[in-house]
Amino acid sequence: MVFSCENLCKCYGKVQALEDVTFSIQPGHIVGLLGPNGSGKTTLIKLANGLLTPTSGAISICGGPVGKESHSLVSYLPERTSVPLWMTAAQLLDFYCDFYPDFRRDAAEEMLRSLGISPRQRIRQMSKGTREKVQLIATMSRRAKLYLLDEPIGGVDPATRDYILSTIITNYDPDAAVVISTHLIADVERVLDDVIFLNQGRVVLQSSVDDIREREGKSVDQLFREVFRC
Amino acid sequence: MLRKLMKHEFRATLRVMLPLYLLLVVTALGARVSISGLLGTESALVDILASLLVVAFAIAMAAVCLVSVFLMVQRFYQNLLRDEGYVMMTLPVSVHQQVWSKLLVGVLWCAATVALVCLSLFILVFDLEMLEGFARFAGDVWAFLKTEYGFNGVLVALEVAVVCVLAMCSAYLEFYCALAIGHSRPSHKLVWSIAAYFGMDALISLVGGPFVRALASTGIFDKISVVTESATQATHLALWISALVCACSAAFYYAITTWFLKNRLNLE
User: Fold this and answer.
1) Residues B87, A99: C-beta atoms closer than 8 Å
2) A42: distance to nearest CA of chain B, Å?
3) Is residue A121 a part of any domain in this protein?
4) Among A187-201, B84-98, B203-217, whose mean pLDDT is lowest?
5) B-chain residues within 8 Å CB-CB of A51?
6) CATH of the domain at A195
7) Residue B246 contacts by C-beta under 8 Å, 6 or more apart in sequence?
8) How many domains does chain A have?
9) Chain B closest CA to A44's CA: distance in Å?
């Protein structure tokens, strides 16, 4: 298992964000963590990154607990632009090179070149879409065991969405697992192997995309709309 | 990894501190020129210009001192507790290394600021005769203290430096601690941070006062004054007690800061 949760609960005061979440993810799979806004997707990803501590239950990354060691195995793309804005793209690559031995600088430079982004340009001077692309390039240029991508296509135009998704599927290590958290199902459906549906902090479905199509005769998007109908 | 964290911390702070240091040196040169030749001339315009140069130097000096402290606190807040925290707190480094990197770089910049302020004052008042006079005076005082009281100047200077560094660490860690506590709350994080800062101060005054009075009632201070036979010994003892108090408070704030960052991190 690359990533597993057992009876995971997270409360913010009296609000239960995650309740008894149990699942596991195998290497080599691209998994969609799907759910409406406020279903607990970001909380789950933050817990897997050690940015929050669980109220109860356990998370395991490649068989170990979340911590300094798991950080070297996980490549995380936060939902917001989090890279230091004062850095240039080249300085950001220096930064990733310094802390992650699995960072492929040549791959990152090639992606920057293909997008026409100057390594000397400051991230602050880039548009929102370009910043997201640079952050994605840094994340996907690692040879990590687990990629946790929180809303990677939220808030960008359809052309950028295509670029982001193609970057994800062409750059991840086949032995690694990718978790994509999103509520934009139609856009990501074609790249997913498995899905996990989260609703109000609970796992309501874990299945492979092929099973959904065969058993339900529906696309993931259609099933999602049925499960989460208001 | 600590070395790498410090390298990037220096890179982040250098772009602010270096221009400020240059500004300080340039304004010091301007004020020097102003004092040595421009002030007191018959031209009102030159007089105003000269006064402005001196004022600019004073402002630059205040700005460098304030910014060097403010920037290090702001770096902790911005880099670990705001958006950049998503990148920094998921690096394969420990919370201790994160805090140490901020603290060490902060202390080094503070020391550099003190050195630069001294240098700029030196530029301002540079006068070979006066300098020789000052050196002679300092030498006489040093020799007098040594012969009369057996004063080990080097040791005392080292002890003072240790106390200053520890006091600086304690001051920075108090800010870090308040921010870490405040940012564990779900909302109004800065308000909680300010409340935590003043709350801790109040707590220490509340506990510290009675603690010292209780200690005094045991007669320990009288015993110490008997043991210290000379002013020199008393100076050493006072400095070591100061260092101990600063180290204890720094350790207290450090423990709380790292605990909150490890167990109660709550990024927005």
Assistant:
1) no
2) 11
3) no
4) B203-217
5) 85-86, 89-90, 265, 267
6) 3.40.50.300
7) B163, B166, B167, B169, B170
8) 1
9) 13
pLDDT in tens, B137-179: 888 887 777 776 666 767 778 888 899 999 999 999 999 999 9
Nearest to A169 by CA among A186, A185, A150, A193: A193
In a domain, A154, yes or no: yes
Query: Positive or negative CA dihedral for A117, A118, A121, A123?
Result: positive
Q: For the segment B176-197, what is each residue's pLDDT rounded down to a tens digit?
A: 999 999 988 877 889 999 999 9
Q: Which B positions 175-194 lie with beta carbon below 8 A of chain A?
A: 186
Smallest CA–CA separation between B232 and chain A, in Å?
Answer: 49
CB pairs below 8 Å between A and B: how many?
61
Q: How many CB atoms lie within 10 A of CB A215?
A: 10
* Position A186 in a domain: yes
Mean pLDDT over B58-78 rounds to 91
A90 interfaces chain B, CB cutoff of 8 Å: no
Residue A135 placed within a domain:
no
A124 inside 8 A of chain B by CB: no
Question: What is the pLDDT, as a whole number, of residue A101?
Answer: 93
Q: C-alpha angle A152/A157/A158, rounded to 5°?
A: 90
Percent of chain B with pLDDT over 70: 91
Q: Would an 8 Å CB–CB cutoff place A76 in contact with chain B? A: yes
How far apart, in whole angstroms, are the C-alpha atoms of residue A124 and residue A81? 11
Paired with B76 in beta bridges are: none
A145: contact with B, CB 8 A cutoff: no
Best to test chain A binding among B74, B86, B261 (most A CBs inside 10 Å): B86
Q: Strands of A15-25's sheet, edge to edge? A: A15-25, A3-12, A56-61
ipTM of this complex prediction, to 2 decimal places: 0.87
Q: Which domain holds residue A72?
A: 3-82+143-227
Report the C-alpha gap between B208 and B231 in whole angstroms.
27
Q: Considering only A19-23, A35-39, A156-160, A194-198, which range has the smallest mean pLDDT?
A: A156-160
d(C-alpha A47, C-alpha A196), whole Å: 16
Asked if the Cβ–Cβ distance from B8 to A80 is below 8 Å, we say no
Contact B90 A51 (CB under 8 A): yes
- Which residues in chain A have Cβ-Cβ distances shorter than 8 Å to B84? 82-84
When pLDDT is averaged across residues A34-41 and rounded to a whole number, the result is 88
DSSP three-state, residue A197: strand
